[in-house]
Every structure is written in structure tokens, then in C-alpha cells.
Amino acid sequence: MAKHDPAAVAGFLLIGSASVLFIHIQLKMIRAGYKTSYSFFGRLLVANGWDTPAKYLKVRAKHGWSPWPVYLVFPCLLLGIGLLVFGLFRL
């Protein structure tokens, strides 16, 4: 499949990267003592999960964290979904 349609494989890899970055953000927030919600994974439209990156950006300077995980989550997710859809339609 990687030879026939690399766009679908790249889409899966980018979506996976966005997931890893999002979990990284959540774990940093939890370890620092901030409340985040794991119920985000059960209900996608819950505000407790989607506002975690915004909270991360507000407190990152206090803890000396890099802002790049938040800046990369949504572009990776959108580009990954786009590549996956494009790659699956080309099959």
C-alpha cells in the first residue's frame, strides 16, 4: 500500500502524530496539577478536552514548556485527515 498510495500512509502517520502530541499536552498538564478530562476521548465535543491546548499555552511560560506541541497538533490533524481522504479516494 505504501508504494501504491503513500498519501494514505502519510495521512495515518500525521493523524497519529497529532494524537501523540495531544496526549503529551494532556499528560504535562496533569503532571503539573491542572485538571484535564480523559472523558474527551469518549465524547468528542466535550469542552474539557478541547480547551486543554489553550490552557497549556496560558501556563507554559510559568513552567518553561515549549509552545510547539500546541502549534503542531491542529495542522497535523487537518493535513493528516486531508491526505487520508485524498489517498483513500485514489485507491
Describe the structure.
The chain is an all-alpha fold and 91 residues long. It has one domain (6-89). Helix content is 70%, strand content 0%. It contains 4 helices and no strands. It has helices at 6-31, 47-50, 52-63, 68-89.
Give a concise summary.
With 91 residues, this protein is mainly α.
- Tell me the number of helical segments per DSSP (H or I, 4 or more residues long): 4
Helix content: over 70%
Rg from alpha-carbon coordinates? 15 Å
What is the number of beta strands?
0
* End-to-end C-alpha gap: 9 Å
Question: What structural category characterises the helix and strand content?
Answer: mainly alpha
Main sheet? none
> What fraction strand?
under 5%
Query: Secondary-structure element sequence?
Result: HHHH
Residue windows where pLDDT falls under 50 for at least 5 positions: none
Give the averaged pLDDT, no decimals.
85
The best one-word shape is elongated
The tally of domains stands at 1
